[in-house]
Amino acid sequence: MSGHSEELRRRIVADINAGASGEKLGSERDLAEKYGTSRSSLRQVLAALEEAGLVHRVIGRAGGIFISHGQVERSLSDVVGVPAFLTSQGYVAGTRVLSTRITPAEPPAQTALGISENDYVVEIQRLRLADGSPISLENAQFPADSFPGLLEQQLGGSIYEILETHYDFVTGRAEERIEAVNATGSEAALLGIKPDAALLLITRVTYDQKGTPCEYSRDLFRGDRTALAVTAKGWGIAADADVNTASVSLQQQAG
Known about the structure:
Blueprint: H1 3-18, E1 24-26, H2 28-35, H3 39-51, E2 55-58, E3 64-67, E4 72-75, H4 82-88, E5 93-104, H5 107-113, E6 120-130, E7 133-143, H6 159-167, E8 171-182, H7 185-191, E9 198-208, E10 213-222, E11 226-229
Parallel strand pairs: 4-11
Antiparallel strand pairs: 1-3, 2-3, 5-6, 6-7, 7-10, 8-9, 9-10
Helix pairs in contact: 1-3
């Protein structure tokens, strides 16, 4: 794709991210004028976006180019990295590493990882992309003493694969808490959405095969692009169900 086409694609994708599924972007003529390009160049980019499932064309007087990005399904039954579940659903997974640092552990991380205020964590903030569109913003923290040199690794893919390959880490289980929150201005800018738009906050503590907590993560998923899925085991009415396997808690309403 030429430089002009790539710039055009980025501008259109930005408008797609700012819109809602089913919203009309405009007609070919309108879009060619808006982006200052020829209709032939526009058609080439739109064809690629349509193949990726980001837009669809409707023919007729009421037709035009419409946003059609679908929802990404995030399973709650398996501990897998974002690239793995995006790829399994046919998306091209991408990552932008926003920041990395080694920093003193703050109280939430201390509690989750079982470390003290004198301990340090490796903090990695990344933006996850599905077919080039932002889908989630993640902030993951790992005990620095357990994973020396982690920031020297290639952090654009699955960190779980890095931990397994270089640190003999095997995921044992993860405990997750899901909340509905609203995007701050900075979060909205990174995710390509409007401030106060709905997000799903998934707070996760991941344990290794020995039961030691090794990751504390806060992941923000776009509410308009994410569906949660879980496979639940049926116990029967008369059976003694383990009520600790899953729970729903109500947040206290602000007065």
